[in-house]
What we know:
two-stranded antiparallel ribbon
Amino acid sequence: MVLTYMVGAAFVLRGYVKSLPLVGAMVFVMFAYLLSLTQILPGTTRDHGLYMIAIVSNFILFYLVYNFIRHQSAWRDVWAILAVLNVLVLIYCIIEMVAGSAGIRFFGMSELEIKSARAETGRLSGPFRAVAMTAEYMGIQSLICVYALMRFSNVRSRIFWFGLLAGNLGFMIATGNRGGVIALAIGLAVLMYLFRRELGFMKIITWLSVGAVAFVMSAFVVVNYTQYNVLFERLQETEFDGALPDTRQGWVRMWDQIIAKPIIGHGPRLRLMDEQNRRIPGYTPITYPHSGYLYLIYTVGVTGLLAYMLFFTALAREYWRARTTGTDDPLLRGLPLLGIAILVLFAVSQARMEMFRYMLHAYQQYLFMLVGAFLAFAHVAMERRTDQKTPDAQRASESPKKLELLSRVNKSSDSEYASRQ
């Protein structure tokens, strides 16, 4: 987070920050947080202040990545970075599996210790220290892998991306997170629907079959050769109380606290530091709601929820605007539609888990980096569409009245030239 602020300052001082897209929506989000700060209890200023520093760094990273791609022509570099980061996350998960609950400490440093906090329950936490966020990450990266397989025909590239896809699916299964699998299924269905005209029915079946094969292979390895094999048991044991699953009954119990301050919320941060050993008059610890939407309503109220919805809706609109681009680069051309599928997966996934917890700041930065990158991908694609217009295409895009006026001028000029001859 500190590095994010330092690099952000360097970008500003060197004049690298040239564009601030969606700045209105971002300001609305910050305004909602400032409103909620008026509701915090005395003695909790430091907790909420640290949380706000983390939230602001998310938007700093969003604009850093966007401007780096947009103005440095580095969109392929960032695409490669997404792949490299995915490999590093998989390596971390492998180390966590091997370490188990005992843990592995590198160079004797506690900061470099990796251990599986939920190994005894047969669930993998991953580098984000939350099974749901690790599952969501694996789902998003799986969509990226499927898209890469659709675009690359080179044998080596396809082997790499298929292996990455199998790894993502395998570690998603290892998290034992049911919602992650459901969100991925919905995101994959949206991705196939968005590319239905380009792919056709048979290719859609082919790519769905590729995904199914990768899932079955990964499930076979995880279930038979690791202790992180509780996903299918949890799916089988799922029970519902009305429309709610058994693990989300807290949604109803939290409603009384929400309606107490529904407009501007109770303050940016839900859980406080070392709260069990502190005496804060008027403060009652509350459990996490396991829903991003409920988390926002409780902390920053309906105002904050609407602000975030405006921000992500504006992102989706920009992606949609770039869906039909004239660029001859097939990888770049389809990235805006991939971005829409990712946003759908994210929206579905956040219904059953919140990324806004203070301890999940690393995942927040990944998500804001990702959506900033895809916004830049969309705008680069639209710029290339504009730059590649031929003179005839530019004339065809002009208004009918302008074309009619130009036609009259041309006819007048032709008549005058003929009379002189």
